[in-house]
Write a structure and sequence with these properties.
By secondary structure, the chain is an alpha+beta fold. The chain contains 20 helices and nine strands. Helix 3 packs antiparallel against helix 4 and helix 12 runs antiparallel to helix 17.
Amino acid sequence: MNKKKIINDPVYGFISIQSDLIYDLIQHPYFQRLRYIKQLGLSDLVYPGALHTRFHHALGAMHLMSRVIKNLQLKGIEISDQEEEAALVAILLHDIGHGPLSHALEETLLQDVKHESISYLFMREINKEFNGALDLAIQFFRNSYSRKFFHQLISSQLDIDRLDYLKRDSFFTGVLEGTIGVDRIIAMLNVHNDQLVVEEKGIYSIESFLHSRRLMYWQVYLHKTALSAERMMVNIIRRAQYILQAGEKLTTTDALSNFLLNNYKLSDFNENTELLDLFGQMDDNDIWGSIKCWRNHADPILSGLCNRLLQRELFQIILSTDPIKKSAVDKVRQEIHQVYGILRKDTNYLYSLGTVSNEAYVSGGKSINIVTKKGEILDIAHASDLPSIKAISKIVEKNYLCWPKNVSL
């Protein structure tokens, strides 16, 4: 069978599948599941075109990795065929551990378990099936390989993951401010002492990349309406957990029911491979199919939230750099208690309070390094002559409070 296929991608055009191993990995059920997990969770409630999936993103990231590898080889960086394939495999599978609705339910279905940890467990399990063919890719992913630039291409502040998702998310949302010069950035990448660097003449492309990332956070990833929808979704799952764990029945899939009933930790996955397989059966369809069932449930809080989300009757929301006053929260809770006639302890399901942060660039640590014409290595925050880069390095936090529109403050 010919496994060297091409895939037509709306962002880059034709993407080549370069080896039998990569073809077989794409065909694996764990990877095919990514077709049914939207990249941007609930953002399509704001941007109707944002229906692309983790499957799209993974293939796009693999395509960009292939281009980066070829560019580095042209610059004299020795990269073996085995290293090239391992880099493609590592970036292809970097998001395979995402659960339903991507980041939206990370804190709810699996508390204190990051999707990167699940990605590693999936890679480890697949590696057993493929008789160790992923050994080198896993080293890249875990940063245990001697040539550190491979891991930096997978996970850093200028990694292939970010290059693809900014380009792709901008394309599908139509937010032109998020557009980045991928071609120019790739052409400017180099390796110095086994560390990923950007040539000095590419500095303005990196500045533009950081500005675009900052704008995409405020306009898309942390858009207040999408944030409101996500908090409603979180409250739906929390209420479903409460009902199931209280011994009542809920119509849902076996996989989702298991994760609603149990508060699993990372150690549980390490000890039970069947649990990982169960997680690998869940996608967005489990959530939306369940919500359509729950909209008629006898519990008014669960059914009410489900109906509102399905009909896009979202919570109103305030987003502020100032702390949310306790008096405002108390007022919301009191009004919810009176309007809906529910117990005070249950009002927590009908509002949400929290903080979001925009970290466009964090200076130090995994910094973006510029190599000058003299061979000097500088952090982008110090190499740039634009004061705005230093400003971008500061983490901006905003506080939010959202609650039903028929509850007045």
